[in-house]
Amino acid sequence: MTQSASEPVAFKKDTVLVIFGASGDLAKKETFPALFGLYSEGALDPSTKIICYARSNITVQKIREMCLPYCRKSTTGNDEAKMKEFFKMVSYVQGAYDTDDGYIRLRDEIESFEAERGVTEPHRVFYLAVPPSIFLTVAGQVKKNVYAENGITRVIVEKPFGDDLESSREMQKGFKPLFRPEEIFKIDHFLGKDDVRRLLTVRFANPFLNQSWNKDNIESVQVWFKEPFGAEGRGGFFDSTGIIRDVMQNHLLQILTLATMEEPVANNADAIRDAKVDLLKCMEPLGPENIVALGQYGRSVDGTKPSYLDDDTVLNKKSKCLTFTELTFAIHNDRWEGVPIVMRAGKGLDEDRVEIRIKYKKNTSGMFKGCTPNEFVIHFHPKPTIYMTFNTKAPGFDDKLHQINLDMTYAQEYKKDWVPEAYECLIKDAFLGNSANYVRDDELDVSWALFTPLLKYVEGPNAPEPEIYPYGSTGPKGILE
């Protein structure tokens, strides 16, 4: 059965969801809390069967205890009873990832459930919450042993999708003979964030805003990612990844792409992803000339916080791994030609903030010449907000200008409404077959082609020395503001 990526189906009863890596951190902190969130708000059909699969010898009760601290309260209360009912939907199969035995037991569990419910057209969703090194191993076993031959199969894959253009293409090549493109859902969880999803609506449903969103009116586009903590015991992972792969090539590029792409020709998955790819093709590949600053955090000024190299899990004590990078981008099209576009990301900084800031040009003539320019801002983290700055007259007799925020934040307007978390949105989209907020292979290709030359430069034999900046500071000297 072929299902178009542009045509989501209705929610199917008696869906089977299998979570591979169910005993791991991702499942504990994101997947199960998202599933419970959907269930508690009535957005997950209670006929769904959830099967956990992992190598660990644990129980469903243990999984419940592990994920409980990460589950948020529902808007309607009675969470204890809902949690009890939710976990009645869950079972556990222990097995290895690289041999048939466990998958045969998994197949028996799935087929037993489907037979009991009288399912004639299976709908099976497989969530790969496992390390990238075994993506293809698990995917091959799914295809061999539990693929829904007479129904619908969907496979959710977590990032990273390779670590450069070559490895990304190798992964794509490995999946290609196993599943059709519409069966693969590649998660970048930033695409599930509500304010990221709202960005397209705010831009394109308000023509006055989109018509001013161009080189004639915009001074600059800035994307900021700041974390107030360092590697914190994750040095083994981070030292082979670095800040560029960790957040810039994926999360921040997704935000930038949605903020700068042209309006899609239709409101469907293929049209939206086509528009993103078209925008990325207008960007020059990144190289040394795009670098504004490269940094690695050192000890804090007061000596209480260790440097990156002091972390016991960073084994290479001469590592040049970047914990801070600032880059400029050039978009060569009629809308953005010549507009400065800046992306910054860093760990061990002075605050916790993820945002995009569209800065308008100053008023250069008339009675209010030189007044404070307008800005359109979305804070994605830690407190999601979306607003535009607006000049008006201050209260009283004085004609002094005053700038206020035109606030579009959900928390103000929809105080009693449930606002889904990123993983809640994305998991539901996968159940419905809506791939608009998932990453397509050609988008991966062009995004990795954009960043791979830069990565080869900063990680090559003649890699530049990162500037050491104090833990808890604003970052290296000379960053653009």
From TrEMBL:
GO terms for cellular component: cytosol. Keywords: Carbohydrate metabolism, Glucose metabolism, NADP, Oxidoreductase. Residues 201-478 form the Glucose-6-phosphate dehydrogenase C-terminal domain. One of its GO terms (biological process) is pentose-phosphate shunt, oxidative branch. Residues 18-196 form the Glucose-6-phosphate dehydrogenase NAD-binding domain. Catalyzes the rate-limiting step of the oxidative pentose-phosphate pathway, which represents a route for the dissimilation of carbohydrates besides glycolysis. This is Glucose-6-phosphate 1-dehydrogenase. It comes from Naumovozyma castellii (Yeast).
